[in-house]
Design a protein that fits this description.
single chain; alpha/beta; Rossmann fold; 2 domains; about 45% helix
């Protein structure tokens, strides 16, 4: 078996038994099962005076973790700058939030070169190098400059924008040409895959050789849709494991005849959180009988707090939750329960199972594993209902969810009401179909599908 070398912006803490985040959840178990190397940043920042620092190597069973230090300048220009102030909003169709500076691009290229310098001496001739996400689009090109000829793959966890959106950023042609230096390029959805194909044809004059391959600089590049999934059985087991605090709260709600809507997201402007709260407020306006009978629990995990846009959305959410509670709350009923901190996955699984509606309404999302986790957590005899944005990658497959437009507050409010009042037999039918879908596209299928494409050396001929 060829050794797998995973490269990502951050390396998961492999000493933990469980991971959080789509990338970490998707990769940690697979690496532990087959062995390999994981290379990336450790999250620490060194002062520029301390640089250069050497990569640090640790071993966890059959997995070697190699962490690359970043300086404060790297962090500001590569991470906060080009990655999260240019590519993140651009790829999520938020051109109004793109903040391009030449120094950001320079930092992005510098850090990708630093990753390539650290990675090159670690590689064996027959390694499979699997690179993840928007932080490292130019890495294959940097490796090729250093003479590396290992088979390389790239998977994008977030959306890939349409050609007209992508063309708004300076050096967009360089970005895509760098991406095409990979041997295999994978996306979450067919929409993302089509966007790359259209860009290649419109801006680079490259026509598809067939439905999945194109020729670039005398090389064959394989492109495909590989929807990421979860370990369904592990999450089902987690949801069935009692969590005392959740059980007590569930019993209290059952006695009072109340239901719960749950949303779980990173605190990010792409997740549609303000409109989600407005939709819940609209539910209470349109359907007065829902008052005192349903509450919204919104868990918003802190993230990228150094970026101004995130501080702004936090302030907006806190104001909205206070406004709704001030308007509708009673002495024994709080409509919105807003939690701004991380919650252990074991507790989340129990909370999903105890909630009658899962409310997942990003404005744009690569996949959104929360939607799949909510489905996996449900009691098949009395399941809840998933209300899902049509702009989440998961909506391409999870068609038995109630699909909504996250920009339409009334549409979301009506779908919430439908989910809360849906008959049990319809809920069971939808749940059974959704479970079949998340099992078909689980974490193993994602891993096996992508690695099969990477191991097919004949495709590179």
């Amino acid at each position: 078996m060829r050794r797998l070398v995973v490269v990502s912006n951050r390396v998961a803490d492999l000493s933990k038994t469980t991971q959080s985040g789509g990338l970490a959840v998707g990769l940690a178990d697979s690496l532990k099962s087959r062995g390999g190397v994981w290379v990336g940043w450790d999250g620490a920042r060194a002062s520029d005076a301390e640089a250069p620092l050497e990569p640090r190597t640790q071993t966890f069973g059959d997995v070697t973790s190699v962490t690359i230090p970043l300086t404060e300048e790297d962090y500001q220009e590569y991470y906060l700058g080009f990655s999260n102030s240019v590519l993140w909003p651009l790829f999520h169709y938020r051109l109004d939030l793109v903040e391009y500076r030449t120094a950001f691009m320079e930092g992005y290229r510098r850090v990708n070169a630093k990753f390539a310098d650290a990675l090159t001496p670690l590689l064996r001739p027959d390694d499979l190098v699997w690179v993840h996400d928007y932080h490292l689009l130019p890495l294959a090109a940097e490796l090729r400059k250093r003479g590396c000829r290992q088979r390389t793959g790239f998977f994008l966890h977030i959306p890939f924008p349409s050609p007209d959106i992508l063309a708004a950023v300076p050096r967009h042609r360089w970005l895509v040409e760098s991406l095409l230096e990979f041997d295999v390029i994978g996306f979450q959805t067919h929409t993302d895959l089509g966007n790359l194909h259209r860009y290649a044809e419109d801006h680079l004059g490259i026509a598809l050789a067939d439905e999945s391959t194109l020729r670039f600089r005398d090389r064959t590049v394989v492109t495909g849709c590989f929807p990421i999934g979860i370990d369904v059985d592990a999450f089902v087991a987690m949801a069935e494991t009692p969590v005392e605090a959740v059980q007590i709260e569930q019993m209290r709600r059952k006695i009072l005849g109340r239901k719960q809507i749950i949303g779980v997201d990173r605190l990010d402007y792409t997740k549609g959180l303000p409109d989600r709260l407005r939709a819940f407020e609209r539910l209470l306006e349109l359907y007065p009988d829902m008052r005192k009978t349903v509450a919204l629990m919104q868990i918003a995990t802190p993230t990228r707090q150094d970026v101004d846009a995130y501080a702004e959305i936090r302030a907006e959410l806190e104001a909205l939750s206070g406004k709704i509670n001030g308007r509708f709350a009673d002495f024994n009923w709080t409509p919105v329960r807003y939690i701004h901190r991380a919650v252990p996955r074991e507790a989340l699984a129990a909370l999903f199972r105890a909630s009658q509606v899962g409310f997942v309404t990003p404005l744009r999302d690569g996949m959104n594993l929360v939607a799949k986790e909510y489905v996996a957590a449900q009691d098949p005899d009395d399941p809840g209902v998933l209300v899902l944005s049509k702009f989440a990658g998961a909506a391409e497959d999870l068609r038995e969810a109630l699909i909504v437009n996250p920009y339409d507050v009334d549409d979301m409010a009506r779908s919430l009401h439908r989910g809360l009042t849906m008959a049990r037999d319809e809920r069971q039918e939808r749940q059974a179909a959704l479970m079949r879908r998340i099992r078909r596209h689980d974490a193993k299928a994602w891993l096996d599908g992508f690695l099969a494409a990477m191991e097919d050396d004949a495709a590179a001929a």
